[in-house]
Structure formats: C-alpha cells, structure tokens
Fold:
Amino acid sequence: MTSTTRRTFAFADWTLRPDQDDDAPPLTYAFRCLTLTEDDSECPAKSPPSEDPTEPQTWAFDHMREHPEHTGYAEVIERPWVMWRGGPS
Ligand SMILES: [Zn+2]
Structure:
C-alpha cells in the first residue's frame, strides 16, 4: 500500500477555483470529430477553439459536408481555473 504518500501534493493554504477575473483567459469551445476511420483510429479533425459556442457547430457542418459519413462529434470546453492562495476560511 502506498496510501501514506497520497496527500503529499495537497497544499493546505491554496485552493483551486474557476478563473473569472477580468484578465482571465477566455472560456473557449471547440468541436472534434469522433468518427472512426477504416483502420479504427479516430478522425483527427478538430475545430479551432472559439469564444463563440456556435462557431464550432458551423465547423461541424462544414466537416460533415466534406465527409458525409462523419456524424459523431464531441464538444471540448476549455474553462480557465486558477490557484488561489488563502482558502475561503
Ligand atoms: Zn471527421
């Protein structure tokens, strides 16, 4: 058992929270294609990240127009978080 080392990286005076400061990096959205190709690997196509959630959906329609059999997608959301010194206590 190695459970004695489990808490090594828990810094008591730091907390992790979503970064909602004015200068925080933006929340971004992207779509990626989940369709399996003939050799069973995932299609590598992915939209560029956008701050507008509808833009990657437009990309998905463009991608399906080029590859009509590619109908499975995943939305990838990047949400900035920040380490905050001093907890809420
Ligand atoms: Zn694809």
Summary: Residues 33, 35, 43, 45, 63, 67, 70 surround zinc ion (CB under 6 Å). The chain has a mean pLDDT of 87. The chain has one helix and four strands. The radius of gyration is 19 Å.
